[in-house]
Amino acid sequence: MSTLVLELRQGDMMVVNGAPIRFRNRARIELTAKARFLFGKQIMAPEAATTPARRIYFALQTAYIGTEDERAGGLQVARALIGDFQQATTSALVREMLRQALVCAEADDCYQALKLARRVMRHEEEVLGLPPVAATRLPSRAEAEASPMTLTFGLP
């Protein structure tokens, strides 16, 4: 069985299987079973979903780490937002990344879908001249599934 060891700092946030967790002090945790989780700057707050690409990320995030009731709705919203964005963009690359993100999300590989959505967000930020919503990248699947592994995230 694979395990993932995470080191989180005081004040860091993590969502595991739909449950938000805020760390009151520095902690090292070990996930020993498959779980839907995001942490740190990977988690987008609802008020940060201010652009079309960010709304797609937030919908895919909900489809990934929302409660069981929220996940289906998140995927449905993501489908609609992705369709709208694909029609509005002139970039064939962005349309393809969004198509792949939707395929991944519908196959319950929302982690990969989020990675693709983050790339679309970066493209949108460059085109519109916006500051990045978050500086942290999502670890690769290999990094996330390596056994054992320690990642350190949190505020500098």
Automatic annotation (TrEMBL):
Keywords on this record?
A: Bacterial flagellum biogenesis, Cell projection, Cilium, Flagellum, Repressor, RNA-binding
Q: Name one GO biological process term.
A: bacterial-type flagellum organization
Keyword Repressor attributed: yes
The UniProt entry, under InterPro entries, shows: Flagellum_FlbT
| GO MF term set | mRNA 5'-UTR binding
* Descriptive protein name: Flagellar protein FlbT
Q: Which organism is it from?
A: Belnapia rosea
